[in-house]
Amino acid sequence: MARADESARLGAPGGADSGALPVKPEVLQVGSLPDDAAALLRDGFHVHAIAAAEAVLTLAPAVRERIRGVAARSMVGASGSLIDALPKLEIVSIFGVGLDAVDLDAARRRGIRVANTPDVLTEDNAEFAIALLLALARRVVEGDRFVRAGRWTSGSLPNSTRVRGRRLGIVGMGRIGSALARRAVALGLEVHWHGPRPKPEIGYPYHADLAQLARTVDFLVLTCPGGPATAGMVDARILAELGPEGFLVNVARGTVVDETALIAALEGKRIAGAALDVYADEPRVPQALLGFDNVILEPHIASATVETRRDIGLAMVANLRTHFDAATPGVRP
Fold first, then answer.
1. Which residues are the active-site residues?
2. CATH class of 122-297
């Protein structure tokens, strides 16, 4: 990728050789993208790339004036300062579903479209949540470590917890929560849920109070959005209601859980265990979590299948192409 001050010489509109190359909308890639998604982006657009939003001011003012789109992972998003630095910005296209890292107020003030890829990763996220639930309750990861450490010759692994016939609480009954519920019912779980408002058409018992839900269920799975509205909502009080036989699974956002309270609950054996795919300060994981046998730690991979990551990249680029009215045949969300 050319340095920002070289972009005018390498085919950017208005550059010395701009007549020699097709004029493509200029897009800013913020942070890394999977190789195939980045290649699709470069194929359809004139791409400038920066490692982080804070580097936007290293781009020459003339370059920033021409950028009409932003492409970024959901965890990177688009901050208000990034949006403010791009006067001609028209669209932010997110690789993923979460919008909590996008300054939506700044986008609304400017009339900037924000697009994500919500339908593409639903099933893989729900599948992974079930995988974590089963692995946690049935001590799958712990059993693997037990055998590898040579401890089986000295005794048996403690018994695990049956999943069938238990109660599952889902926090956030959107696309992923609904897909999770379907799988849970097939496993013989009784589904309950919590969200900002009831949805009578769903048919599963609704709990307006999260504490009541936690008190009712054996497994509490988080599939809700991140952002200020859900920050720290699973705190010491909720974990106490979940209780010493309850399990927590988080495939939502790390910010939804008060990690200090979670560590204290695990240390005090006030919950039975936790499986986490997300953390408040990724990729940094609290050191205290590493020492618990009843905790499964994953590197934010719920949607990280080959098939879904390919489809997310296609959808992210298709959102940009649709906006710029330059769709390519065969590329669809």
1. 253, 282, 300
2. alpha beta
